[in-house]
């Protein structure tokens, strides 16, 4: 999946970079972005058990940052749900909880409603970096 600064369309995966992490959502309109929680900013920090799937406007979602739109490859497009189904699946999950930074975050959410599979590249990259760090640390001990 590639990312571009382009006009958002109904059912698109969008993201905004906040510090060192991305916050993901599903674009419905300028008045509606469905995401697993508000962007992780100082004023939005909550306990994980309080984070829910919600609908917000594009300004609140973006926190004034540039929004990137997912550009799906041919294969990804074939695997993805159509835009109206993505919006329907997203709306059906409004109010859902169970947030976990590692196992069930905003990126997991968008991938599940778009592709039917819950995964997070961001989380996988963090795990890979941690493994490499541990391997390097263990190799220097020996």
Written description of the protein model:
This protein is α+β, with helices and mostly antiparallel strands. 37% of the residues lie in helices and 23% in strands. It has a single domain, classed as Alpha-Beta Complex (endopeptidase fold (from Nostoc punctiforme)), CATH 3.90.1720.10. The protein contains five helices and six strands; from the N terminus they run E-E-E-E-E-H-E-H-H-H-H. Strand 3 and strand 4 form a beta hairpin. The protein starts with a strand and ends with a helix.
Percentage beta strand: 15-25%
Q: Summarize the helix and strand pattern as letters.
A: EEEEEHEHHHH
Morphology: globular
Poorly predicted ranges: none
**Over all CA atoms, what is the radius of gyration?**
16 Å
CATH superfamily: endopeptidase domain like (from Nostoc punctiforme)
State the name of the first-level CATH class: Alpha Beta
Whole-number mean pLDDT:
89
- State the CATH architecture: Alpha-Beta Complex
Write out the strand line-up for the largest beta sheet, numbering strands in chain order: 1-6-2-3-4-5
Major sheet attributes: 6 strands, antiparallel
The DSSP helix count reads 5
- Helix fraction, binned, reads 25-40%
β-strand number: 6
């Amino acid at each position: 999946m590639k990312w571009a600064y382009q006009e958002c369309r109904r059912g698109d995966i969008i993201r905004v970079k906040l510090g060192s992490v991305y916050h993901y959502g599903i674009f419905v309109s300028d008045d509606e972005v469905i995401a697993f929680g508000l962007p992780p900013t100082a004023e939005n920090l909550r306990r994980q058990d309080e984070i829910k799937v919600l609908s917000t406007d594009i300004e609140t979602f973006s926190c004034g940052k540039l929004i990137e739109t997912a550009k799906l490859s041919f294969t990804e497009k074939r695997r993805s749900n159509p835009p109206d189904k993505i919006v329907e699946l997203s709306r059906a999950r409004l109010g859902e909880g169970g947030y976990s930074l590692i196992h069930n975050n905003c990126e997991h959410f968008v991938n599940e409603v778009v592709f039917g599979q819950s995964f997070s590249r961001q989380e996988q990259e963090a795990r890979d970096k941690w493994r490499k760090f541990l391997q390097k640390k263990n190799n220097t001990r020996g």
